[in-house]
């Protein structure tokens, strides 16, 4: 399915991405990012530091936001900018859901853009990583210009 700029409206939400992170994923992300902080892979240490379980990495939540946007865009558009910040922690066993809503639609001489608010939230509604993004979209009349 292709997403076209003229089919969108301010306020539209894009399909959400739900994720249940595993202990193996936490360990792998620690290894790949060279993050030795034991709260991410050692349950006893996480408890010692006052967390109820191993803590899900902030950069993993950013990657989930990127996957949410890229999954919506498919191969027809591209993610131009993504910014987010980690504001609350999430732990192993908490389902995370990535969401986004279109806040503006603009165009210039070359491209058509959508600005979005995006965020990661826990099942209880706590937003762990608020952010914003800019995407470039095709129109029904022409493909996008990269650059």
Model description:
This protein has helices spanning about 25-30, 45-50, 60-75; strands at about 15-20, 80-85, 95-105, 110-120, 125-135. It has about 150 residues and is an alpha+beta fold. The chain has one domain: Hotdog Thioesterase (Thiol Ester Dehydrase, Chain A, Roll). Strand 3 (about 95-105) and strand 4 (about 110-120) form a beta hairpin. It is elongated. The two termini are about 25 Å apart. The mean pLDDT is about 95.
* Count of helical stretches: 3
The arrangement of helices and strands along the chain is EHHHEEEE
Strand % is: 25-35%
Mean pLDDT: 94
Order of strands in the sheet with most strands: 1-3-4-5-2
State the separation between the terminal residues, measured CA to CA. Answer: 24 Å
Per the CATH scheme, the topology name is Thiol Ester Dehydrase, Chain A
Low-pLDDT parts are none
> Major sheet, described briefly?
5 strands, antiparallel
List the helices and strands and how they pair.
Elements lengths: L16 E3 L3 H10 L10 H6 L9 H16 L4 E7 L11 E12 L4 E11 L4 E11 L10
Antiparallel strand pairs: 1-3, 2-5, 3-4, 4-5
């Amino acid at each position: 399915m292709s997403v076209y700029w003229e089919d969108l409206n301010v306020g539209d939400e894009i399909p959400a991405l739900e994720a249940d992170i595993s202990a193996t994923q936490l360990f792998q992300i620690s290894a790949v990012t060279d993050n030795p902080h034991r709260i991410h892979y050692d349950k006893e240490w996480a408890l010692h530091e006052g967390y109820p379980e191993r803590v899900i990495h902030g950069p993993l939540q950013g990657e989930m936001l990127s996957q949410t946007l890229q999954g919506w865009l498919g191969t027809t558009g591209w993610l131009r900018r993504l910014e987010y910040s980690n504001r609350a922690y999430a732990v192993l066993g908490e389902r995370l859901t990535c969401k986004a809503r279109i806040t503006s639609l603009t165009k210039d001489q070359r491209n058509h853009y959508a600005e979005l608010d995006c965020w990661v939230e826990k099942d209880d509604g706590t937003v762990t990583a608020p952010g914003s993004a800019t995407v470039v979209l095709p129109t029904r009349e022409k493909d996008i210009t990269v650059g």
